[in-house]
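User: Predict structure, ligand 2-acetamido-2-deoxy-beta-D-glucopyranose.
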Amino acid sequence: MTVLGHWCLVWFFGNFGLGVTSVVFTPECPQSITLRRQLLEVYWQRPREGWVNLSTDGSSKGNPCLATAGGLIRDAGGCWLAGFGTNLGFCSPWQAELWVVYHGLTLAWFHGYSRVDLTIDSAMVVSNFTNASHQVVNNLVLAIWELLLRNWIVRARHVFRESNRCVDWLANYSYRLPVGVQWFNQAIEGMSTLLFADSIGVALPRVATHVVLFFGRLPCLFEQKKL
Ligand SMILES: *[C@@H]1O[C@H](CO)[C@@H](O)[C@H](O)[C@H]1NC(C)=O
Ligand SMILES: *[C@@H]1O[C@H](CO)[C@@H](O)[C@H](O)[C@H]1NC(C)=O
Ligand SMILES: *[C@@H]1O[C@H](CO)[C@@H](O)[C@H](O)[C@H]1NC(C)=O
Ligand SMILES: *[C@@H]1O[C@H](CO)[C@@H](O)[C@H](O)[C@H]1NC(C)=O
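Assistant: Predicted complex:
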């Protein structure tokens, strides 16, 4: 905590937000700062009738390093419609998340789905497509924009990894595939328990960390979700 004139800077070090230090300017110094952990329940929500759920997940063993990704399209009943796994070879985690979105959207378009709930476990990639002020400097981002601008509705949002168990599994499985994309028309052996758990809405706990600042009587809550 640093006091600058009438302003007070509170620094948080640790695994918040994008893993960087967060800074909060407050006109008044907090009397106390506490970290509070809260247990949330996350589970797979059925897409609305007429929509499909496209889940994506990229995985990498370093930055940059060997990376894989998995994607899966399910209907409102939680049934497997189409999926894929890809071994991307050497690539950064950010590129892995982009590749999986690209392949997933290509697959959904190929199957003719017109309403797609796209879930991504990287908040940064979601911001790349929802925040128009980012300069587009990457060919893959441009290719995804081209897909998004076609005649269909795609809603993209960020989800926690815990509600992404199936694609997490697919991404891990893809380390044993040859480099390239492999399309799966039906569930892979070994995934049925996870698919079933999702289809009946089994929840998994997730610990979220809140930073709580107390200013005299008024508590001020900053929620920082771990990505
Ligand atoms: C879609 O899939 C993601 C990831 O598996 C899940 O978190 C979400 O609840 C599902 N449903 C909707 C409506 O997005
Ligand atoms: C993606 O988002 C990150 C963080 O929000 C930003 O720094 C980066 O420039 C964006 N990249 C592209 C290609 O839009
Ligand atoms: C969009 O990106 C700009 C520049 O990176 C950033 O200043 C702004 O806060 C972002 N907006 C949202 C809604 O994330
Ligand atoms: C990833 O796959 C390997 C086998 O290929 C397995 O031993 C490991 O437990 C898996 N990890 C996760 C998180 O599923």
